[in-house]
Amino acid sequence: MKPKVVCIMQARMTSTRLPGKVLLDLAGKPVLVRDVERVRDCKLVDEVVVATSTIMQDDAIVDALAEHLPGAKVYRGSLDDVLDRFYHAAKEANADIVVRITSDCPLCEPELIDQVIQQLLDDPDLRYSSNVESAGQGVRSFPRGLDAEAFRFSALETAWRNATEQEEREHVTPHIRRRPQEFKSANIQSPVDYTHLRWTLDTPADYKLIRTIYARLYPQHPKFRMKDILALLEREPELATMNVAVEQKEVKI
Fold first, then answer.
1. Which domain holds residue 11?
2. Of 120, 80, 76, 78, which Cα lies nearest the Cα of 98?
3. How many domains are there within the chain?
4. Strand partners, 52
């Protein structure tokens, strides 16, 4: 019997650098809706749950999902202890494998997410799979904004019970990624290094780029993918300079 794979997408309205970014417009729908639409294209994801907080500002997230994606599953929990929010959302969904996608990634790549999940399905001893940095395996090679992590519920539960550092509670997976001896891990690598490309949504400059990408590609090809974005940037290289000066907030692993 195939394990139940649940993607949990964390979202909040109180982002520090671009408040309300998850509800900014992308080709007629909020960023968060575009996130969910793309993850729903994954062949290996059984369910998508948006995990937001219980604060009043995040009521807008629930309302937007009800308007644009009736029936979308939402879990509400702690604002600051995102690990706790993730754990309870996954437990409520009866997840065997948890996929973590953040809501500032409206260009996420369904086929890449499936590759990350497939590693866990292929190796029963594997507890964590990703295309991001971890202490045990691999480095980042894809554009920032295509980050995908998948891990067994048992690994999430262990982290939830044992993580004590504020950074580990806020960013969900550092407790796992820092302990390769305890959590066997694997990494998906791109054959080409694309780490100079920034496709995540943290600042107004990021939004300008992503909004332009959607405006160029979505009307003709709603299911556009990484290869289409790369082709666009090759045709219009000036687009990639829109957010080149943005500094990424890093989590030390």
1. 5-241
2. 120
3. 1
4. 76
